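Risk mitigation, structural track. In case the binding assays with S-adenosylmethionine fail to produce interpretable data, a predicted complex structure has been prepared as a fallback.
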Amino acid sequence: MNLCAPETIKYIQKTFGFKNAKGLGQNFLTDPGVIEAMVDAAEIGPEDLVIEIGPGIGVLTDAAAKRAKKVIAIEIDKALLPVLKYTLAHHNNVEIINEDILKVDLNKIIQEEAVERQNVKIMGNLPYYITTPIITQLLEKGTRAASITIMMQKEVAERIVSPPGKKSFGALSVAVQYYSNPQKVVSVPKEVFFPIPKVDSEVLILTLLEKPAVEVKDTEMFFRLVKAGFAQRRKTLSNSLKGAGLDKDAVEKALEDSGIEGSRRAETLSLEEFAALSDAFSQG
Ligand code: SAM
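Fallback model:
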């Protein structure tokens, strides 16, 4: 069965009485080349445990299961369970968990599977409406995986890979680049989905770092400053920080101690500069 063919999706809709739930971002991929590019980028091999977010009717699950030791796919929509049972019946290394990815303790699952960190690969064609919460949760919870290969809205991908100094550089760029090395894998036009969504997509691979990209004394302070800095992008760094409720004198002192001009805007600061500012604050 060609799971990428729109006819297959229509057949499934008819046979299983399945209706694409719009609220769950159910735009299914119909391009086998994109799926191959994803499993190639993640370098899925026979020792690997793939954890897939949102398998849909199982296109990516099928491709991953052909290469991996095991695939655990987490799908929120109960209506897709009989579909997946049917489309993946020829695999004996696939487990489907009917859950909301945001409520799943992935580290617990990974621990139970007893696989090395470098053999855990997270993948998914993410529902657009919760892309950012999913990525931030995976990163902040210190998910024990080698990489996260995910498709998302192009504009979000641009923000994630953006270097400092660009308009697209923001709190999400800093957060993702703090925990991982994000790289573009392939651009995906909206026409290769069924139904066709409003926006184009991009696949990124986030290679998780063993330790954060920059060393900071206090991670909470680092992210507090990042959030404050970008809260009002058009303001100067100094005004943004003060506007976010940080003590005025402490802001002036930390800027001076870290050698960062308060007249700059947050989007011009590198991760190293945010770290220096954060450490200056921690020192008080
Ligand atoms: N992987 C399939 C593909 O590429 O064709 C489907 C991708 S579709 C864009 C997103 C999938 O994520 C849907 O199957 C949807 O039901 C599922 N989903 C949406 N929200 C979810 C959540 N919170 N947890 C787990 N799965 C979710």
